[in-house]
Amino acid sequence: MVQAVRGMRDVLPQEARRWRLVEDAVTAVLRSFAYEEMQLPVLEFTELFSRGVGEATDIIEKEMYTLNDRDGDSLSLRPEGTASCVRSLQEHGLLYNQTQKVFYAGPMFHYEKPQKGRYRQFAQIGAEAFGFKGPDLDFELLLMCAEFWRVLGIDEFVQLEVNTIGAQASRIRYREALVAFLTPLSAHLDEDSQRRLATNPMRILDSKSETTQALLADAPNLVDYIDDDSLAHFKVLCSALDEHRIPYVVNNRLVRGLDYYTHTVFEWTTTALGAQGTVCAGGRYDGLVEQLGGKATPGAGFAMGVDRIVLLHEQVCQDLPNANVDVYVCFAQQSMMRAAQMLARTLREDRYRVRVHMGGGNFKKQLKRADGSGARWALILGESEVEEGTVAVKNLQSGEQHMVTNADLRGHMSKLDERP
Ligand code: ATP
Ligand code: MG
User: Fold this and answer.
1) Nearest to 283 by CA among 332, 329, 230
2) DSSP string covering 368-380, please?
3) What does 86-104 look like in DSSP terms, one character per residue?
4) How many other C-beta atoms are found inside a 10 Å radius of the C-beta of residue 282?
5) DSSP string, 19-74
6) Residues of the chain by 3-state class (helix, strand, coil), percent to 5
7) Are 394 and 377 in contact (CB under 8 A)?
8) pLDDT computed for residue 377 by the predictor
9) Around Cβ 99, how many Cβ atoms within 10 Å?
10) Which of 125, 240, 381, 411 is a Cys-bridge partner for 105, taking CB atoms 3.0 to 4.6 Å apart?
11) For residue 117, what are the contacts with CB-CB under 8 A and spacing of at least 6?
12) How far is the CA of 305 from the centre of ligand 1 (A)?
């Protein structure tokens, strides 16, 4: 048998059920904040990401799935959604003289070492808003995330970290100071950080190496370089979080891995998933639209890692209604198949999930299947029932059984069962 490609995910039915629950809950919250869904292609020109995400980022340096199209164009499977989202809105004139609040869901691709919570194909739900420069947007995004966790019942297991990395100018000044501080120590830095010293020095701040972190203890502090406007922006955000009692910590080392951020950056993390602790990340990226060739437009957003949220949800909330079948229809002979399907259609109108038996066999065998399916009810259709226009409704938990006419079936079911 041909096997799946390393790091590509199969979401099997049991997990898919939880996956659906998570996606539905999250998208319902997004809609309740009046964000609109859009869909974006999985394949884009490589240049979109090298310009949008930044050449000197992990994603571009080593994590992209890049291929040459037949005519020689370099294409990449999208590693993230924000650049595509900007490309799309810009291309269709939707950033011109208007604001946008949108979300999208779908697979992203990173070529990295697969492990629990880290895959080569994984899913994100991303939200982005354009045309708003105030901290009220940053707050709204965080409020929305807090609402996801509350609705999913995982709010106790995630923590919010926020930081401001300031406007471009303050970042450049800080970068110079950081490089001046680290250059004499460069021989002691880990290999990745040595390379980043030349390409993307601020990323060294979130190095996972302990020796590098120890060296950073005396490094210049980012807050000392942040411009007053950014500090004021950040202060408004923090007081809104305080007022709404959304707990957070300010982490001055938080810089995020992507080039496009300015001002606010944030991460929602959990300690429940081992090393793969970040479940949602984002921030403000006021320079991105311009960087991609559009007119300067402020923007902010986040991406939630669906795989990790599903894993967390599984740990926290173990039991999920197991069955995906409500009613299982058994019938005595093949000639009754159409009558059985007719009853099934009737119940499906009331949104029952109905499975009609296939493959013949006696009632004993069929009822065993009905039990195995997890259905709560079986409809049992024998010869006399078909003749009389009736059917037996059996409660598969209690064994209780009633005979009803076909015309009464819907009414009878709704009386038995609160479920519509
Ligand atoms: P990490 O530090 O864990 O690699 P990241 O900073 O690369 O995360 P982003 O690219 O900003 O993450 O993506 C946002 C979210 O998407 C992450 O917080 C995470 O939940 C999820 N994510 C990122 N990469 C993966 C992956 N390889 N597998 C599963 N989920 C991922
Ligand atoms: Mg990563």
Assistant:
1) 230
2) HHHHHHT-SEEEE
3) HHHHHHTTTTTTS-EEEEE
4) 26
5) HHHHHHHHHHHHHHTT-EE----SEEEHHHHHHHT-TTSHHHHH---EEE-TTS-E
6) 45, 20, 35
7) yes
8) 96
9) 14
10) 125
11) 273, 274, 275, 276, 305, 307, 308, 311
12) 6
Q: Is residue 331 a contact partner of residue 362, using CB atoms and an 8 Å limit?
A: no
DSSP 226-285: --HHHHHHHHHHHHHHHHTT---EE-TT---S-TT-EEEEEEEE-STTTT--EEEEEEE-
Q: Tokens 């006399």 sit at which residue?
A: 384
Closest-CA residue, ligand 1 atom 6, reads 257
Parallel, antiparallel or unpaired: strands 100-109 and 36-37: parallel
Calculate the average pLDDT of the chain: 94
State pLDDT tens for residues 68-108.
Answer: 999 999 999 999 999 999 999 999 999 999 999 999 999 99
Question: What confidence tens digit (pLDDT) does each residue in 211-246 have?
Answer: 999 999 999 999 999 999 999 999 999 999 999 999
Which residue has the CA at smallest separation from atom 19 of ligand 1?
Answer: 305
Residue 284: per-residue pLDDT: 96
pLDDT tens-place string over residues 348-398: 999 999 999 999 999 999 999 999 999 999 999 999 999 999 999 999 999
Would the pTM of this model clear 0.85, i.e. be above it? yes
List, chain by chain if needed, residues with CB within 6 Å of any ligand 1 atom.
80, 110, 112, 117-119, 122, 124, 257, 276, 278-281, 303, 305, 307-308
- Which of 148, 278, 285 to mutate to test ligand 1, by most ligand atoms within 8 A of the CB atom? 278
Expressed in angstroms and rounded, the spacing between residue 58 Cα and the centre of ligand 2 is 7
Residue nearest to atom 9 of ligand 1 (CA): 281
Cα distance between residue 269 and residue 162, in whole Å? 11
- Take atom 26 of ligand 1 and give the residue whose Cα is closest: 118
Q: How far apart are CA 181 and CA 190, in angstroms?
A: 16
Cα 402 to averaged position of ligand 1 atoms, centre (Å): 54
Ligand 1 midpoint to CA 149 (Å): 18
- Taking the C-alpha atoms of residue 221 and residue 163, their distance in angstroms, rounded to an integer, is 12
List of residues 6+ apart from 2 with CB closer than 8 A: none
Q: Are 167 and 229 in contact (CB under 8 A)?
A: yes
Task: Looking at the CA of residue 304, tell me the nearest atom of ligand 1.
Answer: 15
Token couple for 211: 């020796």
- In the reported structure, the alpha carbon of residue 253 is separated from the centroid of ligand 1 by a whole-number distance in angstroms of 18
